[in-house]
Amino acid sequence: MTTAPLLQVRDLSVAFRTDRGDVEAVSGASLTVHAGQTVAVVGESGSGKSTLTAAVNRLLAPNGRVTQGSVTFDGVDLLARSERQMNGVRGKQIGLVPQDPMSNLNPLRSVGSQIAEVFTVHREARVREAKKKAVELLERVGIADAGRRYAQYQHEFSGGMRQRVLIAMGLALRPQLLIADEPTSALDVTVQKTVLDQLAELTETMGTAVLLVTHDLALAAERADHVVVMRKGAVVEEGPAQTVLTSPTAEYTRLLISAAPSLATSSMVTPPEGTAEPIIEVTGLRKEYPVRTGALGRRTPFTAVDDVSFTIPRGTTVGIVGESGSGKSTVAKMVLKLAEPTAGELAFEGTSVTGIGGRELFAFRRRVQPVFQNPYAALDSRYTVGDAIREPLDVHGVGTPAERRAKVAELLSQVALDPELARRYPHELSGGQRQRVAIARALALDPDVVVLDEAVSALDVLVQAQILELLVSLQRRLGLSYLFISHDLAVVRMICHVVHVMRAGSIVESGSPAELFHHPTHAYTRALLDAIPVGEAGSPSVVPAG
Amino acid sequence: MTITAGPLAEAGPFGGTALPQAPLDDEKLPFRARLRRFARPQIVVGATVVLVWLLVIALAGVLAPHDPFSSSGGRLLPPSGEHLFGTDSLGRDVFSRVLHGARLSLPIAVLAIVLSVLVGSLVGAVAGFFGGWVDAVLMPTADITMAFPSILLAMAVAAALGPGLANAFLAIVAVWWPIYARLVRGQILSIKEREHVLAARAIGMGRWAVLRKHVLPHSLTPVSVNATMDLGSIIILVASLSFLGLGALPPSPEWGAMITDGAANFYQWWIAAGPGIAMVSVVLAVNFLGDGLRDVFDVKNRGR
Amino acid sequence: MLRFTLRRLALIPLLLWGIVTIAFFLSRSVSSNPLVTIVGERNLGNPDVVAAATRRWGLDKSLAEQYWVYLTNLVRGDLGTSFRTKSPVLDDLGARLPATLELAFTALVIAVVLGTVGGVIAARTQGRVADGVLRVAALAGSSLPVFWVGLVFLFVFYATLGIAPSPGRLSARVIPPPDVTGFYTVDSLLAGDWPLFTDAFAHLLMPAFIMSLALLGTVIRLVRSQMLEEQGADYVRTARAKGMARGQVLNRHVLKNAITPVVTLIGVSVGLLIMGAVLIETIFSWNGIGTYAVESSRGLDFPAITGVCLVGGVLFLLGNLLTDIAYATIDPRVRLS
Questions:
Q1: CA distance B76 to chain C (A)
Q2: CA C164 – CA C143 distance, rounded (Å)
Q3: A279, A367, A484, A485 — which has fewest CB within 10 A?
Q4: CA separation for the pair C67, A133 (Å, rounded)
Q5: Which residue, A183, A261, A283, is CA-closest to A468?
Q6: Cα–chain-centroid distance for residue C113?
């Protein structure tokens, strides 16, 4: 391109002052955005991608500062501008669509007024006209009944609609550059696609350049012209989206590509020989919650799970896929007997365990163990890693104290962690390490079934891949059966033998990953498949192993 | 400060990813780093003054120049070298009485808060954790007690039991425990939904064990901060009851009772000034301490 | 919203019943003999007088009977007769309540207004001198024993400097305004009597200020911490990304969000204010519920004690209810839940 770039970041470094000294978040990063272009910045957590964009519109946290480099926007050095001048730039020339729609809107003020505010603050319109423009914008981003919705509050909107409101706010004054910081990461998969489509349509029409921040490389390649890959504060690769995806130069990029589930070319598991007998059998499972609705507080039951039936054959992985509100986590809790079903039967090894309690329940717990989603919350921060892993053994009185200590060391090795870590506390470990600890703890009682409720959803892509590999190898070695709950169809595809798709409490489709991916029958399954970013507009690029 | 490259855990760049943030509470950091966090001016000042008063309590007998119970000079004498805070209506040295008074007001208050916290926490924990009818039976008692304006209830209890510091102590505990019942109950309600509690249940741990090992320890911090801040209020409440004639009896050198004497002899300002200044210094120190502690734990929670 | 209010209102009688029961049994578990107050020390030796008094005041009945009588009377609006004043407790309370309310209300206004202003200043100047001073002052406010400060203020400003008026609602020998609300300040304004108003107001100022101190400190600290917390909120950052200056964000977004918890404080502060009332009224010779409570408990005047507790409880519960309603009005999320 011979025209001058709209945004030019050169050798930027940003540091934060913390309790533990100065930490450099961005080191000598450079990137370029031309008018009308979409540039994606891709990286895992801690890569500095968000910090980089924060530095562009100078909204770093108070303890952050730019230590070197320049940011030139439309020929002007942004770092040299006064705060007052920056106020004029923000919103008008550089817009922002932030990540979490729930916390980014003032809950005590109407949604529409917050859009109108953009106009009044920049003196582009008076109050009444600003309101009119805001209503128009709401329509433009696809919110029906915009006039009435203007006066509603943030909590009266769904997640996707809230995000559209934020998009409306960001694009209100038709800025030349829009910074979109993980704009859809907090949303359901199917909603993500529609919101991103909307965003793309708007920015194309308005000719807005977009700086898109994301952790999903496939998504970046699909939506952007140009991709910049960051790692630990530095830019490791950049180039046109398709080039980076098909012929990456940096080793890290290669790793990201191979680890990304949606770009995966083969499944990690082989189908089992013969049909194994079911170890868990779920029949007609139903869960209702009494909820008060209406002015007089009538109790109407809310059905979270409606007549769900499936089996888990021994030694296999059964996946349940669904978005939020599908009931998949509730199913997991019922299988773990952490929640009691309103109706339906649960059988373990052919014997019914539906209403058991006391000693039988205690015995059951040894055979079925969980791994939860949030690696930061699942381990009690006041106990060491060793304590956490040993606790199930203590509770069930397995072996002598010495034997238990030895078992802890053995378990840690099994999950590829140094046995020395037993003395550390959870917060000293990374997210991936904590999740391994959680797996070790789940294995402590030599269970038959492990229920993994979004167990890898909160992990970075590379770490996620490692954990999935670990799970697969453990299954092979120990003959474990898994119930794998996830919202990510791509991940489920890699590790499961059978997949059930859930929606609004019911299973809408079941089958092997190959079947589902190549011959989906239900419209919802198709919508889910459609929503997976695959790096290029069009066909999924997967060839499964089985 | 050296710049170290590395992943960010707590320092917040704007935005952030969809991944969960750093841990919430009770990190077990290396001891020295933990200690440094407590080196705030409020804590240092507060703790120093508290220490001084602890010394006074221990050494009152030695430090006081005169016997607090008998006359050591003329009545109603203004402050002098001999009597730092003058003498009261019975000729007793006010300064000595103030020092000895510390032995009454402060330990009673500490005991009162400790007992209130213990009783309240137990009730609140059980009510919050087990819920159901247990909650429905226990909490209304707390609610009713809290609906009673505390001073009136304390007065009523103290009046019923009769005057005396011990009865005032009981009155205060009766009034104060529901505050901790409510506080702890609220804490428990939120803690028991956390994933690590679910994980404990999933391995088959009994409910009492889960409460004891995984729920209660996480409520310790807010409770102890609250208790430290309440200590000041209780010291004042003890003195208030005595002031109204419902607590300490003469010739006890309890500070509130001394102020009553001071009110009766209004123009001999030193009689009320002594115990008043003493009380203010203690309460201020304790409040500083509590405020500082709350800041420390708050900041830690935010990871900043 | 309606259901919410109704549910709260339904709880009140239950709680009040609890208060009354506790107060009743507490006051009657006293070891000393209430007859002392009723008939006077001298007449205790006279068996006829004692017997007559015992019968008349219902003290010959069993405790359970007395309780039942009290409850049934209570439902009819009769709070019994005071042992000391020999007039109906309800009348006694009615005569004294306005004085206390006038004091408490003024204290509340002072605390909320000054406290909010102080809290906002402290938040905006965070880390600098003004913030530090305000924080210490707030802490001090909560650390000062109200009754002692009252004495100190009286001594310094009245006895020594002579700028404050004498204790009491009005200067000596001044006639109160015609009774409309019971609030001397309001009534004198209604009567158009300006000098009377200034006198009443001048007498009101010092005790009300001292009473406000504890609450003032809490409000400053609360507003400050809320504002600081809101300042770090995500939506603040988004607002700045729209191009709003820091000050604008503060005023348009943060302030409203930060004020809401102060509303909750108001409900809780009723308890604090009653405590202040009991102590301050004693020192400032203020003829309100506070002095009535103290005299009643000293004189073992059961009906009066129970009556005072009842009034206190009602005020507290009403305060809580108002707070909840106010909160629901300000925060739209609460309305829908």
A1: 17
A2: 24
A3: A367
A4: 69
A5: A261
A6: 17
pTM of the model: 0.80
Rounded to an integer, what distance in angstroms lies between the CA atom of residue A443 and that of residue A450? Answer: 8
Rounded Cα distance between A546 and C183, Å, is: 88
Query: How far off is chain A from C9, nearest CA to CA, in Å?
Result: 15
Q: Is the pLDDT of residue C10 over 80?
A: no
Rounded average pLDDT over B12-38? 47
pLDDT per residue as tens digits for the range C113-126: 999 899 888 888 88
Q: Scanning the structure block, which residue is given the tokens 């507490």?
A: C26
List, for residues B255-290, the tens digit of each pLDDT value: 888 888 888 888 888 888 889 999 999 999 999 888
Residue A68 β-bridge partners:
A13
Contact A121 C238 (CB under 8 A): no
How far does the CA of residue A441 sit from the closest CA of chain B (Å)? 9
Q: Provide the number of CB pairs (under 8 Å) joining chain A to chain C.
A: 82
> Is B240's CB within 8 Å of C300's CB?
no
Asked whether the predicted pLDDT for residue B16 surpasses 60, the reply is: no
Half-sphere exposure of C248 (CA within 13 A, CB side): 16
Task: Estimate the crossing angle of helix C2-28 against helix B150-161, to 10 degrees.
Answer: 20
Return the ∠ at Cα A369 (arms to A365 and A371), rounded to 5°. Answer: 150
CA distances from B168 to B237, B248, B280, C166 (A): 9, 8, 20, 32
How many C-beta neighbours within 10 Å does residue A200 have? 16
- Res C76: pLDDT: 78
Domains of chain A from N-terminus onward? 7-259 (3.40.50.300), 278-531 (3.40.50.300)
Contact C237 B14 (CB under 8 A): yes
pLDDT of residue C331: 74
Collect all residues of chain B within an 8 Å Cβ-Cβ radius of residue A67.
3
**Complex ipTM > 0.95:** no
What whole-number distance in Å separates Cα of residue B25 and Cα of residue B34? 13
Predicted local distance difference test score (pLDDT) of residue A10: 93
Query: Which residue, among C147, C290, C137, has the nearest Cα to B255 in the 3D structure?
Result: C147
Q: Which domains does chain B have, with CATH numbers?
A: 33-63+84-299 (1.10.3720.10)
Q: Which two tokens stand for residue C126?
A: 């965070």
Q: Cβ–Cβ of B266/C297 closer than 8 Å?
A: no
* pLDDT bucket at C1, cuts 50 / 70 / 90: low
Going by their DSSP bridges, the two strands A317-321 and A481-486 should be labelled as parallel
Q: Which of A292-296, C29-33, C277-281, C296-300 has the lowest mean pLDDT?
A: A292-296
Helix/strand/coil for A126:
coil
CA atoms within 13 A on the CB side of A164: 28
B199: nearest CB among A16, A378, A459: A378
Q: Which residues on chain B are in Cβ contact (under 8 Å) with C23?
A: 148, 156
Dihedral of the CA atoms A250, A254, A259, A261 (nearest 10)?
Answer: 120
C14 touches chain B (CB under 8 A): yes
Res A226 pLDDT > 90? yes
Q: How many other CB atoms sit within 10 Å of the CB of residue A467? A: 25
Tell me how crowded residue A202 is: count the other CB atoms within 10 A of its CB: 22
Contact A100 C243 (CB under 8 A): no
> CB-based contact (8 Å) between C239 and chain A?
yes
Task: Tell me which of A82, A84, A94, A108 to substitute to probe the interface with C (most C C-beta atoms closer than 10 Å).
Answer: A108
Cβ-based neighbours of C48, under 8 Å, separated by 6 or more = none
Indicate whether A171 pLDDT > 70: yes
The predicted model gives A508-536 an average pLDDT of 87
Angle at the Cα of C168 from the Cα atoms of C167 and C171, rounded to 5 degrees: 95
- Taking the CA of residue C129 and the nearest CA in chain A, the distance in Å comes to 19
- Tell me the pLDDT tens digit for each residue of C184-235: 888 888 888 888 888 888 888 999 999 998 889 888 988 888 888 887 788 8
